[in-house]
Specification:
3-stranded antiparallel beta sheet, 4-stranded antiparallel beta sheet, Immunoglobulin-like, alpha+beta
Length: 152
C-alpha cells in the first residue's frame, strides 16, 4: 500500500476551484458576451457531440416554443426569447417569488465543422434540443491498413 503525503495547498486549490465555479454559475450570467444586459433569466445548456452531430440542449422552463428565436451568424448560434409573467394574480399574500420573468439571450460558438443550414430544432417539456449535423469533412473516415504482401 502506497502512502500519500497530505498537501494542504492541494485542498485549498480544490476549494478555490469550487468557489470559482460557484461564482461563474451565479455571476457569470451578467457577461455581455452571453446574455443581454438587465435582469433577464439565464439559460442552462449542455452541448455534446458524436461522430455525426453536435447536440445542444437548453433548459427553458415556462417558455413557449413560439416565444423562442434561434439564429446563426457565422459560427455563433444565438437563442433569445422572453418569459412573460402571467396576468392573472392569485388572491392572498405572496410569501416568496423565485420564478424569473423577462427576456433572455444566450450566444454560443459552434465548432467550425458543422452544417448550420441543416439544424433540426425540437422543443419538448421545457427543453429545446438542437441537432446540428457535422460536415462530411468532419466525420471520421476509416483508413484501411495494408501489409507489405498486399501491395504486390
Amino acid at each position: 500500500m502506497a502512502l500519500t503525503r497530505w498537501d494542504p495547498f492541494h485542498e485549498m486549490m480544490s476549494l478555490r476551484e469550487a468557489m470559482n465555479r460557484l461564482f461563474d454559475q451565479e455571476f457569470g450570467r451578467f457577461s455581455r458576451t452571453s446574455f443581454e444586459e438587465g435582469d433577464g433569466m439565464s439559460i442552462t445548456m449542455d452541448m455534446y457531440e458524436t461522430d455525426e452531430y453536435v447536440t445542444l440542449e437548453a433548459l427553458l422552463p415556462g417558455v413557449k416554443p413560439e416565444e423562442v428565436n434561434i439564429t446563426v451568424t457565422g459560427n455563433t448560434l444565438t437563442i433569445k426569447g422572453e418569459v412573460r409573467e402571467e396576468e392573472e394574480r392569485r388572491q392572498g399574500s405572496v410569501y416568496f417569488r423565485e420564478r424569473r420573468f423577462g427576456s433572455f439571450r444566450r450566444a454560443v460558438n459552434l465548432p467550425s465543422n458543422v452544417d448550420a443550414d441543416a439544424i433540426d430544432a425540437s422543443f419538448e417539456n421545457g427543453i429545446l434540443k438542437l441537432r446540428i449535423p457535422k460536415t462530411e469533412e468532419a466525420k471520421p473516415k476509416q483508413i484501411p491498413i495494408t501489409t507489405g504482401q498486399q501491395k504486390k
